[in-house]
Amino acid sequence: MVLGLLSFAALAAVAALFAPANADDGEKSYTITQILDASGDGTHPLDYPADIAVDGDGNVYVPGGTSDNVFKIMPSGAITQILDASGDGTNALEAPDGIAVDRHGNVYVTGGLSHNVFRITPAGEVTEILDRRGDGTHALALPSSVVIGHDGDVYVTGLGHINVFRIAPDGAITQILDRHGDGTHELRDPYGIAIDDDGHVYVTGTNAGKVFRVAPDGTVVRYLGGIGDGTHVLDAPQQLAIDASGNLYVTDDTSNAVFRRTPGGAVTRILDAGGDGANRLAGPFGVAVDVAENVYVTGHRSDNVFRISPGGTVTQILGASGDGIHALENPWRIAVDEDGHIYVTSVTSDNVFRLTPTPAAVPGTGSGRLADPGGSSVPARVWALMATLSVLVVGIGIRLARIRLTS
User: Fold this and answer.
1) Distance between CA 8 and CA 15 in Å, rounded?
2) Is-contact 29 355, C-beta < 8 A?
3) DSSP code per residue over 91-139
4) In whole angstroms, what is the distance from residue 156 CA to residue 116 CA?
5) 205 within 8 A of 187, measured Cβ to Cβ
6) Is the pLDDT of residue 17 over 50?
7) pLDDT grade, residue 371 (50/70/90)?
8) HSE-up of 47 (CA within 13 Å, CB side)?
9) Which string of DSSP letters, residue by residue, matches 335-372?
10) At residue 381, what are phi and psi to the nearest 5 degrees?
């Protein structure tokens, strides 16, 4: 009997130690904080925070779409305007829309109505790296989203002329996608953009009901079409996110749905207008995914944010009440850092919220590590292993005591 219990303990220990790190972990709670509002840095106002990006040091970057500026929020809470309407001093910035930051801390911003893209170095040097001339043959108009590849290439969607450009680190500019799509299926209104670890670029054709993939060799394929998952239609795809396993997530504003496409081609609707059952979803727009493959989605017409766990559990994590003092109205874009903090822009209430998981994740480890009371960090699965062994050891002791009493 004792050997059986010990065997069970060993099996339980092994199972706890090697359980998948992205297993469905159920409910999470968050501390919600407004980190930026319409007052901007106190001197320069913020109006219409159109996008958001976070660097490896925890600095947050937000463009003001109608205040024609960009703010940096440091982990300390200090706020600085790092770009204004004067652009680089020669070329103006108007209606900044998309923002991204590379691993060196360079920030890239699209000027939607100035038809250009700027780079801001950590030292504050501002350079226009793309303008309305595009690559010299194909023009750029209404640049919207921007994303950075692992090799430093910058990709920009152009809504006005229906195309996508790549800017190499040496400054070479190439159009990689145009209105012809894959040659059979047209691209219309390229908006959302994402890139995977292998260098494939994904672009939504918002008014075409399609997502295209551009391979590193330039091959274009329709990656997701209007039939969605075969039952639920993909109508107006907006934003994209890719997890570490290569799964692609797409928000659809019109059909109030979020789809996931696996690398193998399986398409699943993972969120619909029913939200979490208690809170409805309307107008899914921004999407982000964390290291544990939890997916986060903004509902810009329902004024809320949902989390979908790897196991499929849907939970509203932010509602119209915001942090209880400052309201959330028309949440737009969303980002998540490697420590599990979630950042949400709200374009009508002109503010930005940070959601901090509680208990807070240990820096650099996502949500898979917890801090022990003594201040050291221990992987959550090791805590589970220790707890399992403790319970089983107590159980074995009680069992042995009963055997002795009856023998």
Assistant:
1) 10
2) no
3) S---SEEEEEE-TTS-EEEEETTTTEEEEE-TT--EEEEE-TTTTSSS-
4) 10
5) yes
6) no
7) very low
8) 10
9) EE-TTS-EEEEETTTTEEEEEEEESPPPTTSTTSEEE-
10) -65, -30
Please state the φ and ψ torsions of residue 248, each to the nearest 5 degrees.
Answer: -105, 135
Query: What is this structure's pTM?
Result: 0.83
3-state secondary structure 166-198: EECCCCCEEEEECCCCCCCCCCCCEEEEEECCC
CA dist 100 and 62 (Å) reads: 10
Tokens encoding 255: 């059909």
pLDDT reported for residue 8: 37
Name the token pair of 48.
């219409």
- Give, in order, the Cα–Cα distances in Å from 336 to each of 25, 58, 298, 345: 18, 10, 13, 12
**Can the peptide bond before residue 359 be classed as cis, meaning omega within 30 degrees of 0?**
yes
Strand partners, 241: 249
Based on C-alpha coordinates, what's the Rg of the chain? 24
Chain centroid offset of residue 104 CA: 19
Q: H or E stretch including 6?
A: helix 2-18
Which carries the bigger pLDDT value, residue 258 or residue 371? 258
Q: Mean pLDDT lowest for which of 76-90, 250-264, 368-382?
A: 368-382
Q: How confident is the model at residue 184 (pLDDT cuts 50, 70, 90)?
A: very high
Pairwise CA distance, residues 60 & 54, whole Å: 5
- The answer on pLDDT for 384 being more than 90 is no
At what angle are helices 380-406 and 2-18 packed, to 10 degrees? 170
Dig out the tokens for 266 from the structure: 């399986």
Which has the closest alpha carbon to 110: 54, 63, 173? 63
Query: How far apart, in whole angstroms, are the C-alpha atoms of residue 366 and residue 190?
Result: 32
CB neighbourhood size of 160 (10 A)? 15
Q: Which residue has the higher pLDDT, 24 or 227?
A: 227
CA distance 352 to 65: 14
